[in-house]
Write a structure and sequence with these properties.
mainly beta, seven-stranded antiparallel sheet, about 40% strand
């Protein structure tokens, strides 16, 4: 990590993987951020990517296994997809014979400027229950998968991460500031107020 933290969007930001080293924050308690498929929650953060057009997927905030079923949840920048959208995923089994996941992409401004992002999950376990905003503007969702079908996404063996998934998988290159999580879905009005 770059210490001391540099000026960020609001406060002092953390700059991850900008020097070629693998940087991320790992919370040591696997019981935090353990949202289920029926848990409403909200994730918000200021984000500044290191590149305009990333070529790999980069986890921004996650509590998700890095292999096998990939069980858990994540907010990521999907650099492997055209347009590099934000990916919000609730996953029971990503690749199995019968995948069970909700996977929604949202358009992402392809600049290296700071932007505020907020994603709300209503606890329905469906793609329709996920909304996103970038710098106060509602984003249009593109549903990639909507077949969670009531399966659990809880991953007791993965820890919460900022800037990666478990064990540093899919590291983020860029900066984060003012990361916030709520154990409830913020209303549309509240989501805009968090940015303002």
């Amino acid at each position: 990590l770059t210490f001391p933290p540099r000026p960020g969007a609001l406060n002092r930001a953390i700059f991850l993987n900008v020097t070629g080293t693998l940087d991320y924050f790992q919370h040591n308690n696997a019981n935090v951020w353990n949202f289920s498929h029926v848990s409403p929650f909200t994730v918000a953060f200021w984000y500044m990517p290191a590149a305009v057009d990333p070529t790999t997927d980069m986890a921004i905030v996650s509590k998700q296994l890095a292999s096998g079923t990939f069980r858990g949840w994540q907010v990521a920048a999907a650099g492997s997809v055209a347009g590099d959208p934000y990916r919000v995923a609730l996953v029971s089994d990503w690749l199995g014979g019968t995948p069970a996941r909700v996977h929604v992409n949202f358009p992402r401004a392809n600049t290296t400027a700071w932007r505020h992002c907020i994603f709300t999950i209503d606890g329905s376990g469906t793609a329709a229950g996920i909304k996103g905003w970038e710098t106060g503007v509602p984003l249009t969702a593109t549903v990639v998968a909507d077949d969670l079908a009531g399966n659990s996404i809880i991953s007791l063996s993965s820890q919460p991460y900022l800037g990666a998934r478990t064990a540093g998988a899919n590291p983020l290159a860029g900066a984060l500031d003012d990361v916030s999580l709520w154990a409830r879905r913020l209303s549309d009005v509240e989501a805009v107020q968090v940015y303002e």
